């Protein structure tokens, strides 16, 4: 004997809303959690991450959206743009307001709808009024399913909608039973009279609550014949709910009242929890032939058919099954159609995927929303949310997904920065070799001998080395090249200015001592001059040896020199391990010799008639000082330039080339010109003793002074000496006009 709860036939009426489902079969129908899970799976399968929800106010809509929101959070990767609620008895303004709110987040095209048929229709109408047909991508719950009423005359708005409907089967025999019900044979159902009035649009009694019609019911109407009839989709669940209760009571009676024909005291006093336990443990084949069972939460398995409202070949929209959900999603993506004829699945995302080399900067509180930021500078994309800096010798690749080595460069021979100094150096070397060859060829001629052959050859060697350093500065750096750079960088200038300093110092000492005595100064012989010059050069070589000992020569790759803001232009510079300060220190001694030589050149500027090259040496040193004064600001002013390697190397080599060229041109080119083109001037003149030469030069200097600048009585004494009376006096004056023929 079973207790079977009375079932209202009104529960099977098509007009019954989902909010009025009865508890006795609510667990047999798949619950909102399964429906929400199916929707979450659909959203993920379509690649949507930014969605909105619309719910009808009430338990069905609100609980459905609540379940969807909770499951989407657990699944991750889905964010809510809008969560809207349609109130009871909504007005047109409520639907229009909802659509305007949805349009505030235009990237959220997917809209989840848990709403009644009337509310679904209101939302679609509002969409059409807002001229947004085809914008929204609808995902409808089972209240939409495959029904035609919500989309009647709104088919263009609903095209592309994906809807869910529990799997159901038509129960054989139920249609015959239900269409045979009349007011006479179904008096036990207290709601049947109300259903009769609604179904046939008539009034049974004068006391009827229906006021929208005056037509009276005759009682002879027949369901299906005088009205539209379609078996409601939840009939099978109602039947299964009754059977579930019957099986549970049967099992409960068997266990608690095994030998009792009716309800025993144990069963009569049993709590509801005991009955619930039996219901959850029930398992049987349902009315549709499918298994009926309950999970740990008391819910029946979720089984859904997935529909999409599509345009057919006849241009008539209709629902088409595109998949199913039975504990997991089976969706045929290739069969889906979308509004406006889109071939690809439309997007509904808060933010578009970042491009390669960009990182995601999340929006606080919205894990699906982000701003794309380029990994700039020397950063590369480490992962989708972070950038990392490449190591010092690397730069990001073109798409900024990894780092790649920075290219290595050096000053190339074909570079314009190298062509100019190399050209000047080659001209200088040719000129130096020509001068040296001329001096060797005419080694015993008066002009060559008067120039001081030994120091001249030393000076020409220094000039030659000044030109040679250009090639070492441009050559590809290696240990040998770097070692030669250290040696010859300052050696050529040191040799040149050591020789010039020795010459000017010799002239200065001769004439300074000649003012006091006619005795020749010490260390003015060629051997002494070479010894003095060599000692000055040895100081430079000693400094270079100490440099080798403290810091052996080596090559380095400088990644900071050409590390530009744009990493594409970054270069590593292969160069010798020589700093700017070390270059200046290496040249510092030569510059000291140059300054000292200039001072002596100034002191000997009044030596008469270019005595022994004093004035050409002076002009040489003045010009050289100007060259190096211009070099220093250019050299250090470009220390931060990306072209530092080229500018500094070119500036240094051109400065050395100019210094050598000035000395070569002013000191030797006039002599070579005379030797080659005016050999008649390159003749031996009468030799004078050192005493006669110094006396004549001293007297000439005094005569060159103004009378009022001379000591008292000096003018008179000089005037009393009649040059005409002394033939030697005239000869003396005539002889020292050119002292190039005198070797002092």
Automatic annotation (TrEMBL):
InterPro entries: ANF_lig-bd_rcpt, GPCR_3, GPCR_3_9-Cys_dom, GPCR_3_9-Cys_sf, GPCR_3_C, GPCR_3_CS, GPCR_3_mGluR4, GPCR_3_mtglu_rcpt. One of its GO terms (cellular component) is plasma membrane. Residues 703-728 are annotated as: Disordered. Gene3D superfamilies: 3.40.50.2300, GPCR, family 3, nine cysteines domain. It is found in: Cell membrane. Belongs to the G-protein coupled receptor 3 family. This is Metabotropic glutamate receptor 7 isoform X2. It comes from Notothenia coriiceps. The gene is grm7.
């Amino acid at each position: 004997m079973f207790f079977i709860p009375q079932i209202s036939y009104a529960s099977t009426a098509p007009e019954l809303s989902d909010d009025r489902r009865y508890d006795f079969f609510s667990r047999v129908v798949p619950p909102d959690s399964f429906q929400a899970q199916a929707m979450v799976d659909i959203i993920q399968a379509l690649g949507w991450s930014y969605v909105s929800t619309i719910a009808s106010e009430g338990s069905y809509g609100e609980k459905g959206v609540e379940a969807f929101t909770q499951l989407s959070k657990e699944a991750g990767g889905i964010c809510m743009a809008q969560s809207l609620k349609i109130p009871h008895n909504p007005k047109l303004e409520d639907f229009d307001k909802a659509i305007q709110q949805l349009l505030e987040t235009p990237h959220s095209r997917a809209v989840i709808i848990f709403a009644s048929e009337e509310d679904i229709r209101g939302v679609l109408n509002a969409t059409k009024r807002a001229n947004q047909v085809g914008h929204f991508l609808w995902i409808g719950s089972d209240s939409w399913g495959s029904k035609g009423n919500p989309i009647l005359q709104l088919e263009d708005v609903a095209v592309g909608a994906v809807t869910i409907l529990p799997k159901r089967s038509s129960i054989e025999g139920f249609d015959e039973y239900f269409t045979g019900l009349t007011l006479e044979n179904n008096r036990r159902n207290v709601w049947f009279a109300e259903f009769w009035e609604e179904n046939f649009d008539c009034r049974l009694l004068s006391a009827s609550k229906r006021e929208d019609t005056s037509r009276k019911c005759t009682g002879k109407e027949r369901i299906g014949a005088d009205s539209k009839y379609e078996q409601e989709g939840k009939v099978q669940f109602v039947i299964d709910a009754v059977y579930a209760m019957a099986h549970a009571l049967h099992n409960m009676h068997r266990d608690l009242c095994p030998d009792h024909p009716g309800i025993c005291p144990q069963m009569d006093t049993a709590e509801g929890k005991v009955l619930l336990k039996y219901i959850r443990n029930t398992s049987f084949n349902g009315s549709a032939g499918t298994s009926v069972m309950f999970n740990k939460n008391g819910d029946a398995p979720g089984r859904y058919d997935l529909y999409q409202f599509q345009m057919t070949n006849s241009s008539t929209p209709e629902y088409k099954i595109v998949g199913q959900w039975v504990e997991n999603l089976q969706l045929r993506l290739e069969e889906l159609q979308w509004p406006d004829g889109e071939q690809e699945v439309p997007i509904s995302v808060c933010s578009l995927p970042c491009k390669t080399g960009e990182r995601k900067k999340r929006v606080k509180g919205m894990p699906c929303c982000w701003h794309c930021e380029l990994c700039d500078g020397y950063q590369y994309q480490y992962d989708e949310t972070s950038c990392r800096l490449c190591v010092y010798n690397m730069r990001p690749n073109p798409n900024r997904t990894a780092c790649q080595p920075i290219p290595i460069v050096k000053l190339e021979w074909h570079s314009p920065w190298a062509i100019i100094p190399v050209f000047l150096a080659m001209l200088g070397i040719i000129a130096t070799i020509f001068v040296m060859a001329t001096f060797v060829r005419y080694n015993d001629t008066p002009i060559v001998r008067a120039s001081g052959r030994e120091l001249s050859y030393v000076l020409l060697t220094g000039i030659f080395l000044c030109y040679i350093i250009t090639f070492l500065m441009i050559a590809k750096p290696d240990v040998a090249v770097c070692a030669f750079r250290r040696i010859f960088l300052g050696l050529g200038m040191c040799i040149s200015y050591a020789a010039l300093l020795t010459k000017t110092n010799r002239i200065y000492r001769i004439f300074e001592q000649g003012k006091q005595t006619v005795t020749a100064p010490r260390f003015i012989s060629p051997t002494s001059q070479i010894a003095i010059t060599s000692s000055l050069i040895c100081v430079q070589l000693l400094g270079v040896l100490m440099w080798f000992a403290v810091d052996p020569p080596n090559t380095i790759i400088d990644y900071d020199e050409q590390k530009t803001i744009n990493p594409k232009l970054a270069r590593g510079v292969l160069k010798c391990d020589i700093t700017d300060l070390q270059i200046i220190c290496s040249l510092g001694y030569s510059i000291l010799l140059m300054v000292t030589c200039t001072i002596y050149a100034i002191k000997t500027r009044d030596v008469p008639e270019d005595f022994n090259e004093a004035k050409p040496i002076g002009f040489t040193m003045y010009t050289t000082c100007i060259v190096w004064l211009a070099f220093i600001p250019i050299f250090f002013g470009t220390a931060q330039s990306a072209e530092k390697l080229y500018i500094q190397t070119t500036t240094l080599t051109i400065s050395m080339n100019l210094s050598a060229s000035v000395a070569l041109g002013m000191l030797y080119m006039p002599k070579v010109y005379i030797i080659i083109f005016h050999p008649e001037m390159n003749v031996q003149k009468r030799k004078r003793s050192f005493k006669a030469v110094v006396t004549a030069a001293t007297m000439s200097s005094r005569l060159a002074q103004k009378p009022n600048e001379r000591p008292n009585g000096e003018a008179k004494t000089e005037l009393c000496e009649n040059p005409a009376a002394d033939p030697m006096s005239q000869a003396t004056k005539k002889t020292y006009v050119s002292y190039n023929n005198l070797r002092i």
